[in-house]
Queue: 3 jobs
Job 1
Amino acid sequence: MTEHIIDPSVVEAENARRSTDLRNDYDSLGERLDRRGIAIDAIKAKVAGFNVAVPSWGVGTGGTRFARFPGPGEPRDIFDKIDDCAVISQLTQATNTVSLHIPWDKADANRLKQAASRFGLGFDAMNSNTFADAKGQLQSYKFGSLSHADQGTRQQAIEHNLECIEIGQTLGSKALTVWVGDGSNFPGQVNFADQFGRYLDSMKAIYAGLPDDWRIYTEHKMYEPAFYSTVVQDWGTNYLIAKELGDKAYCLVDLGHHAPNVNIEMIVSRLAQFGKLGGFHLNDSKYGDDDLDAGSIDPYRLFLVFNELVDIEGKDADFHPAHMLDQSHNVTDPIESLMLSAADVQRAYVQALLVDRKGLAAAQSSNDALAATEALRQAYRTDVEPILAMARFDNGGAIDLLSTYRASGYRAKVAAVRPAIEAGSSGIV
Ligand code: LRH
Ligand code: MN
Ligand code: MN
């Protein structure tokens, strides 16, 4: 039986205060959607089937390159992180998987599996880390990892990725996400082609160790930590990698890894059209890889990404990209942020499901630009909160995420047993 960290009676009491209003709001939205030819229960069933993974590193207070300001009750280790993820999953009913980062989350794999399964949690993609030196590691990644000029350093990075696959196999994960910080800081520091060639050779060695039922995701990022050039800098390079590697290789799109104003929804469409869109790291950004809460800065862009996904879903029943949050904070309780972000991702999905696709296609083929964009805006303007809340309520989650979490007193409870962490050390990303 699935264990709950938050006493279900707290959730029930909070829900009881809101369930009548929710029923009324849901029925009234149902009536309005019905007039648009949309069955609200069918949409609610889609939300209930939607999952977004929580990154283990997201439940700790993140930092900036300048400082870290830990909050009360910071998780001490991966087992505390799993507890925090279980809380998010219990209340949102939308996040039943956790994505691990190795070596940050290194622990006995069987213990990890046990700890997660108590709460009905599974494991999403494994993330390797060759962008920082681990304790006791022989070769340094200061000048790169999979693309390093030194063969021994590349081999060490390859072996780390193979180890991540091995750990993931015990956990029941089915994917490895590879993001490297390799690049250069000065013109002339590296030969672009040679560096990329070495990266590809290393990735091929990892790919050779990938189980048949696994996928490998490569994640592009325009800059940082390298500030002049980056080996996997954009979706074009990412596509080349996935093509070079083979059928089990896909591109991962982290929304924050693009220049401001880049048309990410079009990148999504391109990669999917050519069968290489694997998944997402969802977050929001204003300037760069800000790792702000998904949907907090530009919710319309998030909607437009999901609009593409729903369009593709409609044409290809086998299209199942991986969704994961990738955000980290200095100023909020990460559990609160992650819960609200999971809901915002669902919101974008539901709004995209409401798009009148026939009307949109008709407007597009008759070059009616305004009617076409209005089809999107009508869906986006719809307040779908009652659908999200009802999907949570039906499954034992919280109608009101924030109030219920705060009423549970979880943060204060864990702060009483988890020692305070001193501020000052720099962050992780
Ligand atoms: C890199 C990144 C990548 C890492 C994570 C910690 O900026 O988005 O996904 O694994 O941050
Ligand atoms: Mn990412
Ligand atoms: Mn990032």
Job 2
Amino acid sequence: MISVCEVGPRDGLQNERDILPPETRADLINRLSGTGLPRIEAVSFVRDNAVPQMGGAEEVVGAIERRDGVEYSGLVLNEKGLERFNAMTLDRMNVTLGATDSFNRRNANASLDEAKERASAVVSSRPEGTTVTISVAFGCPFEGPVDPGVVSGLVDHFRGLGAEEIVLADTIGVATPGQVKTLIGDTAAEGFHGHNTRNTGYANAYAALEGGAKLLDASIGGLGGCPFAPRATGNIATEDLVYMLEGDGVETGIDLAALIAISEWLETVLGRPLEGQVYRAGASPAARST
Ligand code: ZN
């Protein structure tokens, strides 16, 4: 059994043009928690004015109808975020930093060393129940290909601090399957977070499993790829991933039909087709209307 972490309410919506109010985001989370998904990344504790799509994180968390067996997480970049996280009752903290200087400067106004220090302080305060996600682990929009040795060094560093698990993220969807399998295998990272920007996302997720990953991030409907942005960067779609895995006998414990129903609902909320393909094609030819 592998774990799928649903990141649509966070990574997905954060990269959408539309800003959904906290009650709609909580509604999405509550629908997702009924599908058998073991994990949902619910919110991000960043400044509301920096990322308006993620505004009102506390309101979202307050409106979550907690369901047994589902782990709810929040994203934290620094100590300010940690304070907000600690004031909430979430199960898991996801601390993230980029693998390059330029990405951290754009994303967190910090050099790589500064971002590493900030993340270290946060992780050290709560290593249990903490995931460290290393963004742009395979390629950076500003610096190009990333040295695997740098990523390995970061993985070792955060393991040394006691971080419970490490996720390598192909944030801009540039990796190819061989690279993913090798880097996951070499670092023994527990998880992989992939975007389908260049159509390699699903093959990469599969390769991550072959490399030893036990956790895959995905976003309902492939949320996150704004069709109006010149460089769409959608996550792999959760239902497309589940279709592929279950078809190959990899158990996820997730109800595919329930996921599809949520993407159909989301399409009406956002007023446009989503990037995921399985919700439009149907789970099987028999289930498809003629
Ligand atoms: Zn992402």
Job 3
Amino acid sequence: DLRHVFAGGRIGRLALPHRVIMGAMHLGLETRDDGGAALAAFYTERVRGGAGLMVTGGAAVSAVGVGGPTYGVLGEAGFHARLSRVVKEVHDAGGLIALQLFHAGRYAVPAGLRPVAPSAVYSRFSRCEPLALTEAQVRASVDEFARGAAHARELGFDAVEIMGSEGYLIDQFLSPKTNLRDDEWGGDAERRGRFGAEVTRAVREAVGPSFPIIVRFSGLDLMDGGTRPANVFSFTRALVAAGADALNVGIGWHESPVPSVQAIVPPGLWIPFAARLKAAAGGLPVIAGNRVDRVELAASILAGPSVDFVSMARPFLADAKLIDNTLRGRPVNICVACNQACIDRSLDHRDVSCMVNPRAGRELGTAPVRPVRSLRVAIIGGGPAGLQAARQAALLGHSVELYEALDGLGGQFRMACKVPGKSNYRDTIGYFTAELARLGVRVHLNRAIGENDLGLLRSYDRVIVASGVRPHTLSIPGAGLPNVFSYPEAFGDGVLKGRVVIIGGGGIAIDLAHLAGRGESPLNDHERFRREHGLEPGPVLVTANAEVTILQRGSRLAGRTGKSTRWAVLAELRRQGTRVLQGVTYRQITPDGVHITDAAGADRLIEAHVVVIAAGQVADKAVPALAERAGVRYQTAGGARDADGLDAVRAFAEGFAAAAGL
Ligand code: SF4
């Protein structure tokens, strides 16, 4: 029942077509020297896909507050020109857009400048100790927000959002952990809240009585010794009194020890923490978000009495037509909260995109254009690269057939969707399966391409080989024993029980350890997550069906997992009691376990009922070799191209690129 989403709503004088707001996302396009073309293309594509009000990525109110080199600074002519183009094109397309006023404080990464903050409290997120602002500088910072808001209004934005959550400057003033001042701006909860309230007041003065102001602040900072719930309530009231029109409730800081937007967080988990602020909101709309992954979930949240709008950000990267596709009952490409192509890239100051939708952030020049001649295209392999290639080739107007050796589509995603937190990878497979059907792609399952298929390959104008990888094998004595499994075998039912030793320390090894230690657990178990992370008292269910040891040659577990997720995944393993031995040499596998030389040089037996080899993968070059022999025009994508450093982001992107290069 989507009626609660499409009921329309208001923020101040602004009428919104529906109740999903596209939340702020830094894209990395903000400083691109293209006059704002790419940025405008990103937003207008979302308007055309049904987005209502969109909030831009953070626009820094001062150079010292930027989140990195790709952040725009208000007051700079070039940035204003880009924003102006964005506003015009969004309005021409019939959309609404709010500018987010941003100052990262001690999280800032300003080139050649030392970040500033209420107090000189070291940040382990930005790895620096900021300079404490003087009283005069605090006042100047308030003025910077006001000036930024005035610019937003002059540039034609429909609203502003004051960014005060996620541990940025306003949050740093609010929290006793980062505000150690004892002056007008700190010392007790009221004075710590003063900065956020003064910013809101100054912004209101700068934009006049009727220009809509959203204030985003932390409803729950998830920091030990952070802002107490009672103080969040009084801060909420102060923001209302200072002139806010809507309250957007964020959850967690970048430094929080509790994950807030990672895949292991159950969707919808944080909504009650926003809803409870309704009582303090003085009748203003409350906006809730963080880990709302589909419009249907937004609808169920909006059916309740306390949340007026739902903010969704990453889902608009995964599917630019999120709203329209949902409304029309079409397949929706779901954000699986992997963070790999969005948050992790943003934290590395790289351009943002999306794992399941490589077109995100590259809208310019990648719109499907019908070719002069429609080609007959064969896609070999139905994993991420093949699925993406098939969809894209069909969108481009080619006649596409896909051959998959196994009995279902998805490739390595079929394994991944068993891993706790990754069950919605099934939705990605479902999306592509539905899209291929919609676009008329003929899918042949259980159809491996072999020696006898040279004629078949030659019957196509083009072939895209996305036949994937093979697991790396270990050449040590005992590797062929019946207690030894490859990682694809280990994902099968019932393998991971008893004493399990996993050889390898990469992403797949970690996924297996997680699966073995926890079992297939539903993604929607809110109570379990809250208990495990100390958000509510009560016993934690222990469902471990295996005792897991990871053996690694190197010394960095999950070394390629992104910054936003690695720490949370490792914390999960610690919680499960997974044992990790690093710097080891594997000598032999026997029915009793794995004989190793440990980091100290001692020979040991690590006892195991089950040994899993998850020590990497190699490109499967059999089909590319056949295509070569057939003399057909072909390209490779994903694992078939290069297994080194392969991840799903690269696989999807290469599938997309291969289709674009037909
Ligand atoms: Fe979601 Fe992953 Fe895409 Fe980011 S990269 S939008 S987390 S699916």
